[in-house]
Design a protein that fits this description.
two-stranded parallel sheet, 2 strands, mainly alpha, 10 helices, globular
Amino acid sequence: MKKLVEMPRDEIYELLQRVTGEYFFDSHKHLVALLNTPPSAANETKLVAEFREFFCGYTCLALWLEEYEEDPLKGLNPHTALAKKLRRHLGYIHANRKTTLDDRMDKRMGIPLESESAPELKVSELHSTEFRQLLRILIAQELFMVREQIDALLKTNPSRQELDTAFREFFVAYELFELALDPYHYDPDEGLELRPEVAAEIDQSIADYESEKVKAIPIEEAAKKLGLEW
């Protein structure tokens, strides 16, 4: 991602439109509705399925935001209410976060952390009550309120400064959301089965490679065939 200070007004506008329009936010509304429905076996099944969609939506949102490396406070008037709030939030995040960016990227792919210093709770092993408690914590995160504020802002022909400030607030709220997920491990593919024909194709490909019936194509050659520079 380009540095925010290098983006013209329209580029920040489009970025905010894109990140606030992710399916993740629609899934959030679905979870809210399901959690407000009386518990039942059918409701529990729907919650589990919707949480998978919610988590996958989060990973898509993260792809847009994980490359933002600037200090969200840089350039803000430190005496404003927003700057003070963001400073408090960032202080809380830095004091409590136990994962690196690489750790979080692995977690999004369902890869368990190897570190024993930060043991993870498997979402799939949570009791129904604990699972619902986690969902209620996640749907109440500030990120969703900030998203609604930005959605309203984008309809008012905002200035570049307003958009810049809105993105900083959105990013910090996103980091707070990630912090809420930090103690947990979730693999969205867990419990999903490959179709037999797909599994057979994968097994055959592995067998062909191991028997040297087929050879791996060097990355440089593959890139050349695709017209890419490597």
